[in-house]
Structures are given as structure tokens and as C-alpha cells.
Fold this sequence. Notes:
Layout: E1 8-12, H1 16-28, H2 30-33, E2 36-40, H3 43-52, E3 57-61, H4 69-78, E4 87-92, H5 97-105, E5 108-114, H6 118-165, H7 170-202, H8 208-240, E6 248-251, H9 252-266, E7 273-278, E8 282-285, H10 287-303, E9 310-318, E10 321-328, H11 362-372, E11 376-380, E12 388-397, E13 417-421, H12 425-436, E14 441-445, H13 448-458, E15 462-465, H14 474-483, E16 491-496, H15 501-510, E17 514-517, H16 522-530
Parallel strand pairs: 1-2, 1-3, 3-4, 4-5, 7-9, 13-14, 13-15, 15-16, 16-17
Antiparallel strand pairs: 6-8, 8-12, 9-10, 10-12, 11-12
Amino acid sequence: xxxxxxxxxxxxxxxxxxxxxxxxxxxxxxxxxxxxxxxxxxxxxxxxxxxxxxxxxxxxxxxxxxxxxxxxxxxxxxxxxxxxxxxxxxxxxxxxxxxxxxxxxxxxxxxxxxxxxxxxxxxxxxxxxxxxxxxxxxxxxxxxxxxxxxxxxxxxxxxxxxxxxxxxxxxxxxxxxxxxxxxxxxxxxxxxxxxxxxxxxxxxxxxxxxxxxxxxxxxxxxxxxxxxxxxxxxxxxxxxxxxxxxxxxxxxxxxxxxxxxxxxxxxxxxxxxxxxxxxxxxxxxxxxxxxxxxxxxxxxxxxxxxxxxxxxxxxxxxxxxxxxxxxxxxxxxxxxxxxxxxxxxxxxxxxxxxxxxxxxxxxxxxxxxxxxxxxxxxxxxxxxxxxxxxxxxxxxxxxxxxxxxxxxxxxxxxxxxxxxxxxxxxxxxxxxxxxxxxxxxxxxxxxxxxxxxxxxxxxxxxxxxxxxxxxxxxxxxxxxxxxxxxxxxxxxxxxxxxxxxxxxxxxxxxxxxxxxxxxxxxxxxxxxxxxxxxxxxxxx
Length: 540
């Protein structure tokens, strides 16, 4: 049975001994290079294979009866679907230069001379298998992006229905139309970049630097699409009252610094002069939602401030309140915009080039979340071109938890034994490869029962556990692991597409240490894996 997610290699040779020898050599490297082998004893049989499968490379014997290798290559490349399939001709050293020229004219990318040197065969096949694997990965990413697009369309339809139900005034209707245009613009930009990068990777002659750049573009723009989905989902939850807060005493100063450090690490603050001054203050708040508030304020300042501009962040204790202000030297706001800047879908002046981008819902989420915490928001500006300042105020609490000295944390190991329990084969394999490449020992299971068995046998340090498993869901698996003395101490991380607040609460109740929503940022995943139990709460 063939695996559609693996690259294919076709060997064509009329001599049974040569065919068995070549297939045998390739079979030694199947697991290492991750491909599967097909064989054919004639040009006609090779064409039948080409009609049914795509091939990373074809090893084609030149001298075959009835239909020569050159004729077979011409037939393969005359078909549109296989016109770019790489062909390596297999021939003796005695092949004259005219025959070699004819081979190149028929689309050959290379020659292999008999007797074949295994190391050369492995190297040449490995190059084309790697390129084919890149194409297969891009197809899988395209499917994921298609699902996200359908989710965005569904959310957009719900937003339109909500607007119609509330009979918003004519001005609100115009604003909505502008939002839909922005949504189309914001979706097409990353999708266009991803499509162009994918096309580049599929082209012949792409060098390593170009391939690396294309991959970076795909990762970066996929992240942008994810942020759009998250913003829209959060807006939908706020409007429908489905967000609940998991409040706890929170060192607001530490959180502000952590959010800024994340932006610095991403490189987004590189072109700005950033200053930060904070008092040590505590608030009773949901850490995840407060991180969202702070990040949106900083994003807004960066978005509307030209390169070289200044951004000042201040956190002050004022009587019974905590005040966070983010001041920028950017484009400023007009007097008529100031009262509406925290309204949904509102942005500054829009032009066709739209250099700032965004959907205009970030500050609306800030106001909604701050209000849910018993706080307030405010915007100030001296006018266009004179910068702006955004304020949030929250009730201050006086936290006493810092009195006992914290025990020094033990140093975390560099690598871990990690068990991945995930029924999606592609997701499981990609995650395993990501973590293995960093030196971690990775064990995988495709369902709950086998995962429980492996956990008891292999004693992993960390378990990445999907929630939506067949027959036995992730919550049940977590409860079973916590109930077993041999596995109850292991760190459990929920890695799931379920991201509602009630899903997070249910994860905690089931025994998970952390709850991460797919797709998970690479750095966030590594922090979650290496986080001590004392720091686990910041991810929930």
C-alpha cells in the first residue's frame, strides 16, 4: 500500500538483475530519506506508473527494447502533469557524447553510469526526494490555510448577521463595508505571499538561500493569518459574551516587560527608540487576557509610528488604580477620531496603500477586556502628525505573596524525553521532527490507550497530548495518567485546536499543566516544554 504523503522514486530497467539491484540499493535508504520505490521493466509500464503517481525522480535505463529510454522520457515529458518530472538516465560509461546530448534534449537532469557507486546514487536521489518532500509539505499547508479561510468566512458571516440584527445606523453600515474590504485586503496579502513562495519552491533551479527565504515567508505570513483568525474569534466571543476570566494576583510590571521582550525578540521593535518605566504593581487579572491587552497597545504604537520614531511605556501606581500608558511619536489622531478609536472596526485615515494594515479591532478588544476587569481606557492626541497616547486604568491590589523567599528553581535540562499523543499523522510527524532536531528524545502514539501504555513504559518528562482523540479523548487520557502513580508526576501539555475559555478550564480540571492552542508558536512551545511547574500558570 502506498503512502500519499511520501515522495516516490521510479526505477525503470528491462534487465531483471539490474532492476533488482537498483531497487535493493534504494530500499536501504527508504527510512532514512523517507520515500517509497516503484519499479518498471519497460517504457510502457513506466508510463502507466506516471499516469497514476507523481515522482520525485525517475531512474531510467537508456537501452531498452521496444521503447528506449529516450523515447520513454519524451513520452513522460509530453504529458503536462509530468512535464517537469526529473529524469536521471542510467547508462554505461561508454555512452558517446551525442547520446548524452540527446538525453539532455529529452529533459534529462543528470546521468548515472554503471557500475553505479551507491554513495553517488544516494546523494542524487536525496536531492530530488528533499525537493519533493518540500512540495508535499506545501500542499499540506495549503489544506490548513483553506480550512482557516473557511473559518474566516463563517466568522465574517456571523458578524454580518449580528450587524443586521442590531439595525446599525447608516454610518455603521459604511464602516462595516470598509471592514470587509480590509478583511479581504488583509487576507489576500499573506495568501499572495504564501502562494508566490510556494511557487518559487516548486521551480527548478531554486538555490538553498532562495528556498530558505521562501520558507521564512511562508512561516511569517502563516503567523499573520493565524493572528487574524485569533482576533476575529476573540471579537466574536466578546460580542456574544462567551469570554470568562481566570483572574489571579498578577505582577503587572513583569507582564509588561515580558510582552515587550517578545516584540523585541521578534525583531518588530528594531527600528524604534523604546523606553520603559514601571512601578511594581499588582492587579487581579487574567494573565492571558492582560497579555493580549498590552500586546495590542504596543502593536498599535508600532503600526502607526514611522521607522526611527519613539515609543514610551509607563506603568504607574496612582492612588487606588494602576495606569499603563503607551505614547508614540507617530501619525497622531484627529479630534473626530479620538472618541471612536476604541470602537470596533475603527482605524485612522484609510488610503489605498494602507501601510499600517490591520482590521481595526485590536483596540476594541482592549476596551472590552479592560472593562471586564473593572477598568477604563482613554486616548489622547494633539492632532495629526503629533503622536498619540493610549491609557488603560485598572484597580490596584496589594499583594503579599512575595514575603516568603522563593526557593531557587533547579536548573532545567537541555533536552527532554517527550511523548506526543496525536492521531493526526502529519501533525504528529512534523512535531516529532521539530523536537528531535533540537536534541529531544521523542516518542509518539496515535491514540489514548497506546499513549498511556507508552507513558508508563518509557517514563517521558513531558507529554504533548491532543484533546480530540478518537475513542478516548485527551481529557480522559490526562485523568488516567494522573491516577497512575507511575505517571502522575509527568508534565502534561494540552496541544489542541480547542481554544475557548471553557476548554482551558476543563483542561485544568482534567489534570493538564498547560493548555496551548494550535498552531503553537515555536518559541512558545519550547518555553512551555522547559517551564518549571511554578511558571506553568502563565501559559494557561
